[in-house]
Fold this sequence. Notes:
The complex is a heterotrimer.
Chain A: H1 8-12, E1 27-36, E2 39-49, E3 54-59, H2 65-73, E4 80-85, E5 88-90, H3 95-100, E6 103-106, H4 118-123, E7 129-130, E8 137-138, H5 140-153, H6 170-183, E9 188-192, H7 200-215, E10 219-224, H8 227-233, E11 236-241, E12 244-250, H9 256-264, H10 266-279, H11 283-307
Parallel strand pairs in A: 3-10, 3-11, 6-9, 9-10
Antiparallel strand pairs in A: 1-2, 1-4, 4-5, 7-8, 11-12
Helix pairs in contact in A: 6-7, 9-11, 10-11
Chain B: E1 7-13, H1 20-35, E2 38-44, H2 48-60, E3 65-69, H3 73-85, E4 90-93, E5 105-110, H4 113-126, E6 132-136, H5 142-154, E7 159-162, H6 168-181, E8 187-190, H7 193-206, E9 211-215, H8 219-227, E10 232-235, H9 238-255, E11 265-266, E12 270-273, H10 277-285
Parallel strand pairs in B: 1-2, 1-3, 3-4, 4-5, 5-11, 6-7, 6-8, 8-9, 9-10
Antiparallel strand pairs in B: 10-12
Chain C: H1 14-18, H2 22-27, H3 32-48, H4 55-80, H5 88-105, H6 110-135, H7 139-162, H8 176-183, E1 186-189, E2 192-195, H9 196-214, H10 216-226, H11 228-233, H12 238-264, H13 275-285, H14 297-316, H15 324-348
Antiparallel strand pairs in C: 1-2
Helix pairs in contact in C: 3-14, 4-9, 4-10, 4-12, 4-13, 4-14, 5-6, 5-7, 5-12, 6-7, 6-12, 8-12, 9-10, 10-12, 13-14
Amino acid sequence: MNAxxxxxxxxxxxxxxxxxxxxxxxxxxxxxxxxYGNIIALSDVTMAVDNGRVTCVLGDNGAGKSTLIKIIAGLxxxxxGVLNIMGEDRKFGxxxxxxxxxxxxxxxxxxxxxxxxxxxxxxxxxxxxxxFGPFKYMDVEQMKAITLKELAEMGIDLRDVEQPxxxxxxxxxxxxxxxxxxxxxxxxLILDEPTAALGVKQSxxxxxxxxxxxxxxxxxxxxxxxxxxxxxxxxRFLLLKRxxxxxxxxxxxxxxxxxxxxxxxxxxxxxxxxxxxxxxxxGDVVKEVKAEVTDVADSVxxxxxxxx
Amino acid sequence: xxxxARMKIALIAHAPAGDTFWDTVRKGAEEAAxxxxxELLYTSDPEAxxxxxxxxxxxxxxxxxxxxxxxxxDALKDAxxxxxxxxxxxxxxxxxxxxxxxxxxxxxxxxxxxxxxxAVGSKLAEGGYKHPVCVIQAQGHVGLEAxxxxxxxxVPGTEILYVNGADMTSVExxxxxxxxxxxxxxVIIGLGAPITLTLLKSVTTAGSSAKVASFDLNKELAxxxxxxxxLFTVDQQPWLQGYGAVDALWQNKRGGFKVGGGQSxxxxxxxxxxxxxxxxxxxxxxxxx
Amino acid sequence: MTITHKTFTKAAIDERVAQRSPLQKLLGRPExxxxxxxxxxxxxxxxVSPTFTQPNALATVLYGSSTIGIMAVxxxxxxxxxxxxxxxxxxxISSALTAxxxxxxxxxxxWVGVILALLVSLAIGFINGWILxxxxxxxxxxxxxxxxxxxxxNLGLTRLIGGSVSSPSISNMDGFDTARGVFASxxxxxxxxxxxxxxxxxxxxxxxxxxxxxxxxxxxxxxxxGDENAARAVxxxxxxTKIGLFMGVGFCGWILGMxxxxxxxxxxxxxxxxxxxxxxxxxxxxxxxxTGGYGSAVxxxxxxxIFGMANKGIVYAQWNPDWFKFFLGLxxxxxxIVNLIVKRRAELK
Lengths: 308, 289, 349
C-alpha cells in the first residue's frame, strides 16, 4: 500500500456546485457500509464521482462491488455512512428513486430484455406517450426515430430498431444501454462489469463508449475486475477486497503495474507458491507462480520511489 | 325419533363435489339418520382409490354400518373385506348392483341404468321418435353409457354426443353444433337435470325442432316438464337411495332384518311426465325429488 | 495510453437486418404458427363436413370459441407477463355464484350482485398477484392454492347460503332481463343469431392488443415477463404490473361468470374445474411463451378459435370424440415446439 491515497481536499478543489459555490461532488460516499444479517458485505467505503470523470471500482469476485452499486442504484439501502448526491444526503427506497436522482445503472447481464425490440428496450420504464387519461398511448414512431438517432450518435448504425435486442452482440447491447442512460439525462452512469463477458475487440468498443459518455459530461462509475480495462479509461480507482476499501487512487498517482499488483495481491501469490511447493510435484506450476510473485514484487518496488 | 341407542353409519359415495343429484341422496340419508337416531358420516370421493381409503377409515372409526356406492367394485373389494371381517353390515346403493352381494352387502338400493334407459327408449318409441341424440356429460362413465345403451336398445337410431359437463357454455355450444349437423335428430336427451336445462337453450339456438327428454330431476326440470318444454324425465329417486340405505342398516341393527330378501331394491325408474309433474314439482321444491 | 474518441460506424450488423422482407417480418410474429394451424384446420373441417361452413354453424363455433377466448385474453397477457393462473376455471364460477347468491339472499336487484361479483373477481386477482409478489413463490403454487381454496369456497358457501349445491334460479328477479341483455343475449346479423360473447371477445382482444402494442403498460408487460430484474432495474413497476395482470384475468373471469349465470339462470358450484387448462392451452397454441416475455392477445384468440373449431368440428364431422383429447395434446405439443424454435432464434441469432 505505498501508493498515496487521494486527498479529498485536492480532489475537490476544481469541483464546484454552480448554484451554491461550495465544493461538492456529483456523488460521494463516505464511510458507507452494509450488512445482511450478521454478514458484513461492505464496510467503510469512501469514494467520489464527478462530472466528466470515470471512477473505476476494482475488486475480485465477492469483494463487495455489487453491493456497492446496489446501494447507489437504489436496490439496497446502506446501513452506515453517508450517500451524498450533489451535496444532499440520500437513501434510495427504489431504483426509481435513484433514476430520478439522475443515477442510471447498466448491469452486466440484465441490462435489457432480450426478446423485446430495441426501441422498446431503449424506452423501457420511461416511454413517451400521447393522449389523455386512460387513452394515453405510446408515441411509437417518435420513440423509434429517437432510438435510431441516439444509437447512431453513439456509433451504432441500425436500420431496424424493431429486431429483438437479443439478436445484437454483447457489446452492442451494452452500448444500447449506455446510450439509453445518456439520453435519459443520467448524471451518474454506473457500468457493472460491462466488459466481463466480452472478447477483446468488443471490450474495446465498450471502453470507447465509456469515454464518449464521459466526454458528454457524465460521471461514470466503472465496475470491473480487470485493471487493463480500468486503467486506460479511469480517472480514479477504488480497490475493494472482502467488502473493505484497500486503496483509493488518482490516476496521476498510480501506474497500471501497481494497480495490477494491488489487484493480484502479491502476498497471497507468495503463499500459494509456498503451499504448492510443500505439497510436492507440480514443478511447472510452482515455477510459474513464483515468477508471478517476483513480477508483482518488482512492480510494487518500482512504484515505491515515485510516491515516497 | 327412534328410541334405539345412538349408532354411527358411514355413507361413502363416489360423488363429485357440488353435484345436485348427490345432494338429494344426502338429504334422504340425513332424514333417515335423524329419524333413526343415527350419527351419519357422509363422505365421498370420485377417485376409486381414495374412496377405498374412506371405507378403511370408516372401519377404523368402528362404525355400526356402511352404505357405499360401488361404481368401481374391484377397487373397493379389499377395503370392504376389512369391513365384513370387522363384522360391519354393508348396504350398497346407486351403483354396482351386480357386485353388491359378492362384496358382502346384504342389499342394494338403486335403479338399473340399463332398465332406465330402456324405459326412456320405450316411451320415445311410443311417441314415434326415430333419431334421439343421447348426451353424455362424462366420457367413459359406465352408468351414463348404460343409460344411452338402454335407449339405443329400444330406438336403434340413437346417436351419442359427448360434452364437458363441467362447463355449461361448452355443453350448450357443442349440443348446438350437433343439432345443426344432424337435421334429422327429433329428440335430444340429457342424462342429468342441469344438462337437460342447458340443452333446451341449444335447441332454441340451433332453431331445431327436436324435443327434449331427460334423466334425473330437480325443481327447475320439474317445472319444465309441467310447462311442456321437456317431454318427460326418468327419475331414479335418489332421495330414496340415501334414505333406504341408511334405514336398512338401522333395521338390520334393530332386529337383524334384511331388506330385499337377498335381492336389490329398485328405486326407479319412475317416469315423470305432464300427468304427474305438478305433484312431483312440490317435492322437487323441497329438494327431495 | 490514450484512446481517441471518434465515433465509428459498424456496417457489419446491417447485412442481416436489411434483408428482412415483409414476409419474414410476418413470420416473426408470435401468432403466425397458430394462424397457419387455424387456416389448415378450417379448410380441413370445411372439406369433411358441409355443415361446418354454414353461417349458423360458424356462429356456434364462434360462440364455443368465445367462451374460451374471453378468458384466453387475460390469460395470454398474464402469460406474456411471465406468470400463469390455475384458479381461472373455478374463479369464473366463484364470480357467477357471488352474483347470484348475493342478489338472491338479500333480494336485491341482480345488478348489485353483478357489481359485487366484479369486485370479488378483481379481489381474487389482486390476492393472487399480491401473494405472488410478497412471497416470491412460483405462480404455479400460489394459484394452485387459490384454485383449491376457491373450489372449496364455491361448494361450502353455496351449501351454507343456499342449502344446495347449485345456486337458486334468479331468472325472475329485478334486473335479470337487462343483465341477460348485456351478458347473454344474441345479436341478429343477416338472419344469423350470434351470441354477444363473440362481440365481447373481439372487443377484449382489440383492447388487449392496443394495450400490449401501444401503451406503456404493454411495454411493461413484455418487460416483466421477459426479464423481471431488468425491468425492475430500469424503473418498471413490476409489482403493480403483475398484480394488474392477475386482476385483468379476474375481470375476464367476471365477464364469463356473468355470461354463465345469465345464460343458464343457475350455476352448479362444482363447475369450472379443468377449464383453467383450456385457457392456458389456447394461449400457448396462440404463441405465448410459457416462460413469459413473448406472445400476443390475437394469438390467444386464435388459440381459442382453434380449440373451438376442433371441438365443434368433430361434432359436425360426426366423428368419434374419443380422439379429440389426443389431437388437442398433439396440437399443444407442436405449438410449443414452434414457439421454442422462435424463441431460440430470437435469442441466439
